[in-house]
Amino acid sequence: MNFWMIIIWTLLSSLLSYLRVKYNYWDLQGVKQLKPHFLLGHLGKLKSVNHRQVLKEVYDNFKSTTKLAGFYIYTKPVAVILNLDLVKAVLIKDFSFFASRMVYKNEKDILSQHLFNLGAPQWRPLRNKLSPAFTSGKMQFMFPCIQRVADNYVKAFERGLEESESLDVYDLNGRFTVDVISNCLFGFESNCLENPDEEFRQISKKILGRTDFGIKSYLFKTTYVDLMKYFGAKRFPQFIENFFGRVVSEGFVEREKTNVVRNDFVDVLKEFRKSGELNLSNEQISAQFFVFFLAGFETSSTAMSNLLFELARHEDIQTKLRQHIKEVLKRHDNTLSYESLVDMKYLDQVITETLRLYPALAFLQRVALEDYKIPNSDITIEKNTEIFIPVQAIHHDPEIYENPKEFQPDRFTPSEETKRHSQAFLGFGDGPRNCIGLRFGRMQMKIGLITLLMKF
């Protein structure tokens, strides 16, 4: 009995000593931190609040006194950037020090090999090759396709209101964005707006419905990558991997057979493979399809739902927006075109304010590739330290945005924007690793919203 008590006592003492050393990391660096929880670090707070609130607490406690605060994911130290000049250094000015993200990727997990996850050496050439798929020229080619889907979106809206007094707008927006992505980016004739049980929509639900999509599981995998690789952990089950593999193979085979040119994502990849400029396997391409599908339908459908919610709450803004759309269309021969879309500045303000109030990501992630000494400071961010930029906390800072919880699109008039720091809005990230599909995401939202507001 005494022997086992000694063993247990020794193990507990060793564990406590280990945790004491780990949780003193930031103190020894001279960096302020909130008291971490046993074993979980600052994730222990997730029992009572969500991760957005945890980061906001760190931001609110320390932003007035320091550029950087300490944070712990389990036992791993993370640097939380609190100063907008330092945010700009990380994302833009000194980007070469922070060109990668600390994310879970596994060579055996095909769907983890996408652009968002890739480290700097692999990311840069792929980003450069994929960017032509999202130029303004390509957006103009895709415009008619998105407009057709938007017309179906309004019809589905009408059917829903005929069948019931209430309507699940989030589900409808999800079906709209899935149809846009599958039809206009991938060239597949899905019709989720007509058939909610269509395969693309069911896959989208299963992706978001995964229990391991939660923040704790995600951060555990990014923290203990080697352990997860040892056990062969995958983020998503095999049937989702198989689905995107089939989408890629069928998509390329169909294009080869028909010689149809749609100027979409598939055509861009097909041309690169044909010319030898981009040597990607079908598995690697399926990973790119996966991430553009996930990012394209989820972020846009959520943003559209939040925007419609705010318009319902603020009838004055809704009226102003509808009138603005009518005035712009009148200047363009009452035709919704790519040119008229670009001219709708107030709609841009409404979308941007929605993304400020409800950012898709609570934080941006980077990792230090080398030791980085913070300018005008004695603090050094050591190599391999993970970086968090607390987007939602910045967006809700009353010193940056007066009455930050209020929905006020006029915050984003050109004159108002010039008054703020360039990093005060990070709805699409910033710098070389900003959102590659920014133009596409905004365009599908704008077309869907315009078509809806002109009908109702």
TrEMBL record:
Q: What is its main location?
A: endoplasmic reticulum
Its record classes its membrane topology as: Peripheral membrane protein
* Keyword terms, alphabetized: Endoplasmic reticulum, Heme, Iron, Membrane, Metal-binding, Microsome, Monooxygenase, Oxidoreductase, Signal
Where in the cell?
Endoplasmic reticulum membrane; Microsome membrane
Q: Which family does it belong to?
A: Belongs to the cytochrome P450 family.
Name by which UniProt lists this protein: Cytochrome P450
Origin: domain of life = Eukaryota
Q: Name one Pfam family in it.
A: p450
Q: Which GO terms describe its molecular function?
A: heme binding; iron ion binding; monooxygenase activity; oxidoreductase activity, acting on paired donors, with incorporation or reduction of molecular oxygen
InterPro entries attached to this UniProt entry: Cyt_P450, Cyt_P450_CS, Cyt_P450_E_grp-I, Cyt_P450_sf, Insect_CytP450_Detox
- Please tell me where heme binds in this chain: C435
Q: Give the signal peptide range.
A: 1-21
**Organism name:** Musca domestica
- Any transmembrane segments, and where? none
Q: Which GO terms describe its cellular component?
A: endoplasmic reticulum membrane
Which cofactor does the UniProt annotation name?
A: heme
